[in-house]
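Incident log entry.

Two folding requests arrived from the same account within the same minute. Monitoring flagged them as a possible duplicate submission, but the sequences differ. Recording both here for audit purposes.

Request one:
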Amino acid sequence: MTTVAYDTLWQGQWDDMRLFGPMARHSRRLMCQLAGDLSPKSILDVGCGEGSLLKALGAAHAGATLAGIELSESALGLARAALPGAALTALDVARERLGGNFDLVVSADVVEHIEDDRAAFLNMAAMVAPGGRLIVATLQGRMRAFEAKIGHVRNYAAGELAAKIANVGLVIERSIEWGFPLYSPLYRNLLDALGNAGTGGRFGPLRKLLCHFLYGLFLLNSERRGDYIFVRARKPTAGEAA
């Protein structure tokens, strides 16, 4: 998908879904869980979207400086409104990176959209401070038709995400495979049958109530089996690398 297409999706289609949708909320919960034992002084969100993940991590790690990079200017406008104190930059992580580095770099629901994911992982790794962490969340398993329509170029095979992150010089510390059986296969199959209907646009009270119900229901999903994969990795220090 082009930058223009993503800008269009962020103009009233994806923003409420990312704020209230059950999967986005669980993604934020699990990201915060994986970073819970860390004390980062700086956090970067790669593909920060409307800013909800970066905001959640900032709340969990008070005092950390916050930064985000994002391809879509429409999404950046939403993020700037939600996070006026964050340093937010328009940037394509598959082609470039910020000059500094960060104690914690996160990226959720991004790499499945990137053709050259190795270039993206290399740039992410370069932005992690020595001794810092990278946490990536994405989908694995069979790709549904609706996922291809919203810009997925791949869903990862089992073990593939961790292998690609390790291949750019990071040390895998932990992973979570979440979602069986209620999210995947059941919910993903339902969305596929419905053509992803009902997930975009503005969310009124009834849709928010349904999202809240599904969020609670999805707490029953396994964190040891599923197609929503989270990988945490550490960047070695200079002494370790030597």
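Request two (distinct sequence, not a duplicate):
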Amino acid sequence: MLWSLTSNCIKFTSADIETGKGVGSISTLTFDLDITVEPVGSANPMAPTHRVLGRSPRGKLVECGDIWKKQNNEAGADYYMLTIRDHGFNANLGKAANQDDLPCRTSSPGGPKDAA
């Protein structure tokens, strides 16, 4: 079966996520956002790698979240985490099954920050 991701996917301009810009969408049952992702370019290791921008109800581009580079404590591998602040949304960015397009990253939601 051939299908393509239309939501919860960010298409980056480069396979090197840290320097690439991106566009995509994040959808749940409670919100649906078209997003733009821009690198932050900070020398601070505690800063996010990207800021996430969405459109306000009046169409203005506003910062609504961030992408953070994290490291898996067990394997030591780097990964990226997307947050959308107003909705308490967190998701790891990775490749979907059978996905060959390296610059496209899908989000695997982790649920609201305050979920039990």
